[in-house]
Design a protein that fits this description.
Helix content: 10-25%
Distance between the termini: 77 Å
Number of helices: 1
Radius of gyration: 29 Å
CATH class of the largest domain: Mainly Beta
Strand content: over 45%
Number of strands: 12
Shape: globular
CATH architecture of the largest domain: Beta Barrel
Strand order of the largest sheet: 1-2-3-4-5-6-7-8-9-10-11-12
Number of domains: 2
Largest sheet: 12 strands, antiparallel, barrel
Amino acid sequence: MKKIVLSILVVSSLLISAEVTVDQEQLKIEIAKAKEDAQKASDRVKELEAQLPPNEQIITHTELGFIQTEGNTDTASYYFHFDLKKAWDKHLFTFSADGQYAEDRGKQSKNKFLLEAEYAYSLTDRLSATYLLGYKQDRFSGFGYQAYTGPGLRYLTFKTDTQRLDLEGNILYSEDEVEYPLYFLNPNQSNPTEKDSYASYRAKALYSWQALSNLKFEQELSYRGSFEKADNYFVFSQSTLSSKISDMFSAGIGYTVDYTNSPPTSKEYTDRTFTAKLMMDY
């Protein structure tokens, strides 16, 4: 009788142990599936949030880049970019500042910045009326400054869960201060300048693609030209690839091409810049 009871107890213990093991394995499978579903839901929320129109808070985006070399070469390069957006009702105000500075053996080799402010009023879900104000200064371009301002229209061409394309056109009044270098001048003297005012236009495209949940590609392309002189135009292209490293910070690389079709005497047509940068959204 004792042997029978003992056998029953052993068999019962084995069955309970096997059942517990099965329950634990099933629980682990369910936990893994729940984590996967939660990650998918989180990625989907981020995609949907990215499609929302700007809210009434101030939204900022900052980019910083720095490169320094020592030894056979002694250079230092700095890059800064800042965006600000403020929306209310059908209104949207944006401001951007972009600057580059470099030294080669203690002497400046690059010193340029670009400021733009724009106001937009939504006419429909896709179409907005805009007004643009821009100012550019580049010490080594042969221009003392370039300023432009005028009204325009912006159109949202398409918008999906991962992609967006905006097209914009402006009719502008432009003014350029052009330098005419005279090589016989004393180095401490300034080169003579002449102001050139003219009616112009600008066409611009902004494209963004959320390739992965933490990988984004952005492309900006603009063409600004004179109505009076067909050969007086400027092309600007900026490509950026960024990856999220936290809710606030991203790391990325960018490639910028700044082309002038009719540069002042002895100046290059194209200015190219490759930048590694840290980005902050807050």
